[in-house]
Amino acid sequence: MFELNLVIEGTQLAEVSGIPYRQEAGDLLLVPPMRLHSFRSEAPLRYFVLHVQIDDPAFLQRLAESGLLLVDRGHPLNRKLVAAVQALRERMAQGASRIKLYRSLYEMLDLLESELNRILPVPGASEENLSLPAQIAREIEAFVAVQGDEDREKEENWMESIARRLGYSRRHCYRAFMGTFRMSPRDYLFVLRQQEAMHLLLSGGDSLERIALRIGYDNVQSFIRQFSKWTGTTPGQFRKQKRDELVYLTRLEVR
User: Fold this and answer.
1) pLDDT tens digits for 169-223?
2) Helix (H/G/I), strand (E/B), else coil: 42
3) Of 40, 11, 36, 5, whose CA–CA distance to 23 is shortest?
4) First-to-last CA distance in the chain?
5) What angle do CA 177, 218, 226 make, to 5 degrees?
6) Looking at residue 146, what DSSP letter applies?
7) What is d(CA 146, CA 180) in angstroms, rounded to the nearest whole number?
8) Banded model confidence at residue 124, pLDDT cuts 50, 70, 90
9) CA-CA distances (angstroms) from residue 99 to 2, 88, 89, 91, 106?
10) How far is residue 255's CA from residue 245's CA, in Å, rounded to a whole number?
11) Residues in CB range of 205: below 8 A, 6 or more apart
C-alpha cells in the first residue's frame, strides 16, 4: 500500500521517515510503503488523501527506491498527476461506477509507472532479486498475522526462519530489505504490530490480554509498556479516546 496526499487549499507540514516536507496548494506527496509519516497544519486546510492497495510488489518496491515523494507544482509530473487525481475526485463526487473509478486510478498508476521507468532501470533479468524485499515483507506480515497460534515460531528465531524459507542468509535478507525500505525487518515487525494493535483496539471488544497474545506478547504488561512507547498513551486510553474518530487502519491479512 502507498499513500497519495494532495493539498487543495492551505499549507500542510508533513514528515516522512523523519524528513520534513512543506506542501502548498497543488503539491502532491507520495508516501511509499512502510514509511512512518505524520501531517499537521497551523491554519485551515483542505486536502485529498488516497490509500492505494495494489498487489504489485515490484511496483511498490521501485516506488520505495525511487525517492519520488514531493511532487510539487514545479515537478514535470505534477500537472498530469494532479489532473488524474482531480478526475478521480470528480467521478467519486458524481457517484461514478466502480469501473470508472478504477479507470481513473489506473491512469494515475500508469503515470507513476512511466515516471519510475524514466528515473530507474526497467526491471529485467534481475526481477527475481528485485522482489526479494517484498517477499521478506510478506513473510513478516504472515508472521504477525498468525501470532497467537499454538505452533507459532519462537520470537528469537523468526528472521532466521524467514531467510531459510526464502533460500538466503539472514544477513543478505537484512541488507536487501534495509536497502529498499530504509528500515530494518524488526522495525517493520514493530510497525505491523502497532497497526494491528490499534486496529484490534478500535474494531472490536477483545480484552487487552487477548490482543496482547494476538500480536505476539506473552503478557499484557509488556504489551501496555510497548504500546505506550508507540503512541504516548495506554491501550485503554487509546481505545476510549479514538473510538469515535475516523482512523484509517487496514486489517493485516495473509496473502
Assistant:
1) 999 999 988 887 778 999 888 888 888 888 888 877 889 998 988 888 888 999 9
2) coil
3) 11
4) 13
5) 60
6) T
7) 25
8) low
9) 21, 12, 14, 11, 10
10) 28
11) none
